[in-house]
């Protein structure tokens, strides 16, 4: 059976393996294969592999020492892993329970299996879950050298955005003032601080901010992170003209906060603006909104237009990296 694998020249294989391991992307069910001078490194999720690595379908050897859910069920199930919590999405309760039991009986490192019960809703961006096995929804997620403790029942977190977060964090330089306007448990804020930035992070979800503070301590950057529970629009007076970099990862309604972003921006700032739009014209609405908020006080130049992922049929999640320079 073929599975997604990163294909890389043998001499680059170890570096690629280490990158995938740091992002918690290595497959737990298959071993690395060598074929015609190239390595095939099985990955757990094709969607989150960095864009500069080639992903192909290949049939690597299965690890004989592990019993996987597919061995028990006779078919390959679909699930998502967040730390030691396995997430499934099954409409039929009986089928969901059979899958959860198979996952728990397998050799996967799992403590809890949950089933999605609702869409992400409300200001705090959380969803309802049904716990099918295990007794807790708190877990520790690891990506690119950072660790995040979180409770999926109380906060929003998407492991599928790991590659995008890393893309932004790699741009951060020591000494920057970075403002994460919708910070959650800190998947942008904490790594930016680990890069040497001074970070202010806000979120309306008080539980998310509590976890962010724990994660700043956990990753050794608590002195570099100021975490504030509340609406970011109330922070303009305290941090006006402060930010060299702003992260706006609230794609459905980020445009409502652009006036605040402009207030927070220093003489020159990079804005990472996330949006969800129709695939026919995904970038123009966000760019128009940014220009309407920032001009003429700032010169606006779009440095990157990037599609993060497909969000829904004919809708895409995109990001604009925009430079603001005060005139």
TrEMBL record:
InterPro entries in UniProt: MeTrfase_TRM5/TYW2, SAM-dependent_MTases_sf, TRM5-TYW2-like_MTfase, TRM5/TYW2-like_N, Trm5a/b_N
Transmembrane segments: none
Gene Ontology, cellular component aspect: cytoplasm
EC number in record: 2.1.1.221
UniProtKB keywords: Cytoplasm, Methyltransferase, S-adenosyl-L-methionine, Transferase, tRNA processing
UniProt key word Cytoplasm: yes
Sequence ranges assigned to domain SAM-dependent methyltransferase TRM5/TYW2-type in this UniProt record: 79-326
Domain of life: Archaea
Any single GO BP term: tRNA N1-guanine methylation
Signal peptide per UniProt: none
Gene Ontology MF terms in the entry: tRNA (guanosine(9)-N1)-methyltransferase activity
UniProt entry tagged with the keyword RNA-binding: no
Protein name: tRNA (Guanine-N1)-methyltransferase
Organism taxonomic ancestry: Archaea, Methanobacteriati, Methanobacteriota, Stenosarchaea group, Halobacteria
């Amino acid at each position: 059976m073929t599975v997604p694998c990163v294909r890389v020249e043998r001499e680059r294989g170890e570096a690629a393996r280490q990158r995938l391991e740091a992002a918690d992307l290595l497959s737990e069910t298959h071993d690395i294969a060598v074929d015609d001078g190239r390595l095939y490194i099985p990955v757990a999720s094709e969607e989150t592999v960095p864009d500069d690595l080639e992903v192909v379908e290949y049939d690597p050897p299965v690890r004989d020492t592990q019993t996987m859910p597919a061995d028990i069920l006779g078919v390959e199930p679909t699930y998502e892993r967040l730390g030691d919590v396995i997430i499934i999405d099954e409409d039929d309760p009986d089928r969901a329970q059979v899958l959860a039991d198979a996952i728990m009986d397998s050799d996967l490192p799992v403590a809890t299996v949950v089933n999605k019960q609702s869409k992400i809703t409300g200001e705090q961006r959380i969803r309802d879950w049904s716990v099918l096995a295990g007794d807790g929804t708190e877990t520790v997620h690891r990506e690119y050298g950072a660790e995040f403790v979180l409770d999926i029942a109380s906060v929003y977190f998407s492991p599928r955005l790991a590659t995008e977060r890393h893309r932004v964090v790699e741009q951060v330089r020591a000494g920057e003032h970075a403002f994460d306007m919708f910070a959650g448990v800190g998947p942008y804020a904490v790594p930016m601080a680990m890069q040497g930035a001074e970070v202010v992070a806000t979120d309306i979800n008080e539980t998310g901010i509590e976890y962010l503070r724990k994660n700043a301590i956990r990753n050794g950057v608590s002195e570099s992170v100021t975490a504030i529970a509340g609406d970011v629009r109330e922070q303009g007076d305290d941090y006006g003209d402060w930010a060299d970099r702003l992260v706006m990862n609230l794609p459905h309604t980020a445009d409502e906060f652009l006036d605040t972003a402009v207030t927070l921006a220093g003489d020159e700032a990079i804005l990472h603006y996330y949006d969800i739009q129709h695939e026919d014209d995904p970038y123009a609405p966000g760019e128009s909104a940014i220009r309407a908020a920032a001009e003429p006080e700032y010169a606006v130049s779009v440095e990157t237009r990037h599609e993060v992922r497909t969000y829904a049929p004919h809708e895409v999640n995109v990001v604009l990296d925009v430079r603001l320079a005060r005139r």
